[in-house]
Specification:
Blueprint (H helix, E strand, L loop, with lengths): L1 E6 L6 E6 L2 E7 H5 L9 H8 L6 E4 L3 H10 L11 H6 L8 E3 L2 H10 L6 E7 L6 E9 L2 E9 L4 H11 L8 H7 L8 H8 E3 L6 E2 L17 H27 L3 E5 L6 H10 L4 E3 L9 H10 L9 E6 L6 H9 L4 E4 L1 E4 L8 E5 L6 H9 L8 E5 L3 H4 E2 L11 E4 L14 E3 L1 E3 L5 H14 L3 E6 L11 H11 L2 E2 L1
Parallel strand pairs: 1-4, 4-5, 6-11, 11-12, 14-23, 17-21
Antiparallel strand pairs: 1-2, 2-3, 6-7, 7-8, 9-10, 13-15, 14-16, 16-22, 17-22, 18-19, 19-20
Length: 487
């Protein structure tokens, strides 16, 4: 049985393939088209996914007619897609294949729960909006996943965060992570203003808005020029509400295992607060909890049972022998910034070592140099990859491991590692073991033996506004344009 999961015609298009009981492929359309957040599929992506063979069933990540009804009801005529999934897929030779449609939040919940190690879990989904649902709580038990509570549009924490992102001067539905990073530079002095102007109830589980913020709030308080304080305020509101929501969800599901999904689950600052304060025994956030991960979620909704999560490296394969370990170490020791493009691409928005830029985290000017190369705002932080068995030596960890950069933890020695510490001394950490990436583990182990440092700076192999490098051809172009060695 070959199951093809698809997310398309919205944003962040992706495809995933389950063959029998294995995830054999999952990748983003943007990596192939080179168009950031591409909403459309393309032939190269589908050919890689299916090896030119048709699937037995296609699983679509949302219910398009219900979504269209919501768009029409809310006056979003310009967002209504007239083409149907079946007619769209026929353009790629995928006609005559049964299509199963699953609700947006059920796809999110399935992506998280059925990849988790839990046979019993509380599943919480928070995003901007599905068809109508904006927040939902599910009870996972064995192969059953049942919704126990939900809230509908226009009442949405995710939409409010996105609107505040636009108010801060960033691109909505894309640059919320910049708002999250900027928050550390501000003070949450506008929490009460935001609550008074926009929120009528945030007593968990409810999050009720006074106004529909879907069209943005650029009009709000134009006199505020220090947008760092706006970012800090919406981040605090998000932290506080999510903590209360997770505590409520734990009570009504009677589970000590948490699965968190939806686009808001990419907020690693909030995730750290949840891990620290909500007292779950264990937490699972898959590497791609946002909409692009829902292609896998739709496939898993049909599969309807747990699948062994082996690796996030599920995309296009740069199939080349990785030989020059000493060359990498020598370059890093000389203070150079280098790239790695090898093996299968990561499924998710964060580079985890197969499409990465690396540097010595101890370098005092590395952060500025890296931001200049990537054409990013100079305040933006970078993440460390660290040997998992050494992580607790360097960082205050509220979790045992963080292999997918899901938590922003405090560095114990920020003066020693200025390149990977944010203004608040936090770091979005990636823990590495021999099991989750043998090549990175070998590299970090040899780096530690040479330098006494068990970590490296790791950021995505791209510049701002561009997708991650996908192929070796992409890597060579990046190397030529930016004068960076790619290994």
């Amino acid at each position: 049985m070959k199951i093809l999961g698809i997310n398309a015609l919205g944003h962040d298009a992706s495809v995933s393939v389950i063959l029998n009981n294995d995830i054999v492929f999952a990748a983003h359309s943007e990596r192939y088209s080179r168009k950031k957040n591409d909403e459309y599929l393309n032939d190269d992506l589908l050919n890689d996914a299916l090896n030119f063979e048709k699937p037995d069933i296609i699983c679509w990540y949302e219910r398009p007619w219900i979504k269209k009804a919501r768009q029409i009801m809310s006056g979003q005529w310009n967002e209504v897609v007239s083409i149907t999934p079946s007619s769209y897929l026929a353009k790629f030779g995928l006609s005559g294949i049964p299509i199963k449609y699953y609700s947006h939040h059920y796809s999110h919940a399935s992506a998280g729960y059925f990849t988790s190690p839990f046979e019993n879990a509380c599943v919480v989904i928070v995003d901007a909006i599905g068809e109508f649902t904006t927040i939902s709580i599910w009870k996972g038990n064995g192969s059953k996943l049942a919704k126990v509570w939900s809230q509908n549009y226009p009442h949405s924490l995710g939409l409010l965060y996105t609107a505040m992102t636009q108010r801060c001067g960033f691109k909505p539905n894309e640059e919320e992570y910049i708002t999250m990073g900027m928050a550390a530079f501000g003070k949450p002095v506008y929490v009460e203003d935001i609550k008074n102007d926009f929120i009528s109830n945030m007593n968990a589980p409810y999050f009720r808005l006074k106004h529909n913020v879907h069209r943005g709030i650029l009009w709000w308080k134009p006199e505020i020029k220090n947008v760092q304080d706006i970012a800090a305020s919406i981040q605090k509101i998000t932290n506080d509400y999510l903590i209360d929501l997770m505590i409520f969800a734990k009570k009504i599901t009677n589970s000590n295992n948490l699965v968190f999904g939806g686009g808001v689950a990419l907020n690693c600052v909030s995730n750290t607060q949840i891990a620290s304060q909500c007292k779950y025994d264990d937490i699972w956030i898959m590497p791609n909890p946002g909409d692009s991960g829902s292609s896998l979620g739709a496939a898993l909704a049909y599969h309807s049972k747990h699948i062994e999560w082996k690796t996030p490296y599920l995309g296009y394969n740069i199939d080349r022998i990785f030989l020059d370990m000493n060359g990498i170490l020598n370059s890093l020791e000389m203070g150079e910034i280098i790239g790695i493009a090898n093996g299968k691409a990561e499924f998710g928005p964060r580079a985890l070592g197969n499409r990465s830029l690396l540097a010595d985290p101890r370098g005092k000017n590395i952060k500025d140099r890296m931001n200049q190369i990537k054409k990013r705002e100079l305040f933006r932080p970078f993440a460390p990859m660290v040997l998992e068995h050494m992580a607790h030596q360097y960082f205050d960890m509220p979790v045992k491991e963080s292999p997918y950069m899901q938590y922003a933890v405090t560095c114990k020695y920020p003066d020693q590692f200025p390149a990977i510490c944010h203004i608040d001394n936090s770091s979005r950490i990636q823990t590495v073991t021999n099991e989750n990436n043998p090549i990175l583990f070998e590299l970090l182990s040899k780096w530690h033996k040479r330098t006494g440092c068990g970590m490296l700076l790791n950021t995505s192999l791209n510049i701002k506004g561009e997708p991650l490098v996908n192929s070796w051809e992409d890597a060579n172009k990046f190397s030529f344009r930016h004068n960076i060695k790619i290994f």
